[in-house]
Amino acid sequence: MKIIFYTPQNEAAAWLEDFARALPEAELREWHPGDTAPANFAVVWRPPRELFARREGLRAVFNLGAGVDAILALEREHPGTLPRDAQLVRLEDTGMAPQMAEYVAHAVLRYMRRFDEYERQQSERRWKVLDAHPRETFTIGVLGVGVLGTHVARALVPFGMPVRGYSRGARQIEGVTTYAGEAQFEAFLSGVKVLVNLLPHTPDTHDVLNSRVFSKLARGAYLINVARGAHLVEQDLLNALTDGQIAAATLDVFREEPLPVNHPFWQEPRITITPHSSAQTLRAESVVQVAQKIVALSRGEAVSGVVDIDRGY
Ligand code: NAP
Ligand code: GLV
After folding, report:
1. What's the pLDDT tens digit per position in 31-60?
2. Does residue 38 have a cis peptide bond before it, meaning omega lies within 30 degrees of 0?
3. Is pTM, for the whole model, over 0.90?
4. Burial of 20 by CB count in 10 Å (0-12 exposed, 13-18 middle, 19+ buried)?
5. 30: part of which helix (H) or strand (E)?
6. Mind listing the domains of the chain with CATH numbers?
7. What is the DSSP string of 3-18?
8. Which contiguous run of DSSP H or E holds residue 256?
9. Of 19, 55, 122, 147, which has the fewest CB atoms closer than 10 Å, so is most exposed?
């Protein structure tokens, strides 16, 4: 079997070495512009459109991340980019879920115990005890309870704050109050003190973090966006911080990455910024998962994690 590999980061050699160990019978190569030689599988992160040209024999494209928005944006802009018979398969957890749980739990507890305010007090050499937010009303709402959101919601339950989850279809998660579909969106948002975004970026979820949504949350709510920058209407967040509807935000993802040096978010002390690092793709775990699925597909077996192109995730 022939496999092409592409990542814009300069790390193809290490990935190819690991894949060669996991699939010793495979013919692996790094894809370069101009390469239209046959391939059965493509393993990619943020590929250029040209990689898919004249790829009739391609059976599956493995995306080296959970979010397939970059590939599907290519398909939306240039319909027919993805070979019609190839399945698009995304990473499922591969060690990202525990990283996401650590990141979100840290941010939630930082706000609940008011460490963000203590950090500001320290910078002013001010000694003042602040009451923690009451646990019973510090309601956490996780937007998107798929692979990552479910793990995050479950990890938050033991801290004793009310935890809600929102998805398209109905879900049951022990200890979490779940809501599904547009009809229950307002009920999900109502009174939430910490809104955590783990939705995929699709045409339906574009700009979902906006002033209308913020207005439904508890006054002085917190926002944690770890999904995609295009979910957030940036000016709406700045306005909500100014009028006090949002007290603070932790943002890992941005419309433009790296965040431009002159972006107003850098100047706002109530926004905590990390460089798209909340849950990183781990090579060893990802190679194991993708290699197992390549073997399964080669035997004609079905695999999980296949993206529904029309749904967008
Ligand atoms: P997933 O398993 O596909 O889960 C997506 C969840 O969102 C599902 O619960 C789904 O509902 C829900 N959803 C999708 N569209 C919706 C809509 N229109 N209305 C309501 N709910 C909707 O995805 P995942 O593996 O958890 O990953 C989620 C996202 O995290 C990725 O797409 C990626 O953008 C982001 N991510 C970020 C990082 C980072 O480092 N910052 C790392 C990894 C992933 P159903 O359950 O009903 O389908
Ligand atoms: C990272 O952002 C991913 O989608 O895996």
Report:
1. 999 999 999 999 999 999 999 999 989 999
2. no
3. yes
4. middle
5. strand 27-30
6. 2-94+281-298 (3.40.50.720), 97-273 (3.40.50.720)
7. EEEE-SSS-HHHHHHH
8. none
9. 122
- 8 Å CB contact between 281 and 45: yes
Binding-site residues, ligand 1, Cβ < 6 A: 66-67, 96, 144-149, 166-169, 171, 198-202, 204-205, 226-228, 252-253, 276, 278-279, 313
pLDDT tens sequence across 128-172: 999 999 999 999 999 999 999 999 999 999 999 999 999 999 999
**Is residue 3 a contact partner of residue 30, using CB atoms and an 8 Å limit?**
no
**Which ligand approaches the C-alpha of residue 228 most closely?**
1
Q: How far is CA 285 from CA 22, 52, 166, 213, 269, in A?
A: 11, 26, 28, 36, 36
Q: What is d(CA 87, CA 25) in angstroms, rounded to the nearest whole number? A: 22
Distance 288 CA to ligand 1 centre (A): 22
In the three-class reduction of DSSP (H, G, I as helix; E, B as strand; rest coil), residue 50 is classed as: helix
Which two three-digit tokens encode residue 88? 């698009």
Alpha-carbon distance values, 52 to 74, 153, 257, 287 (Å): 11, 37, 25, 21
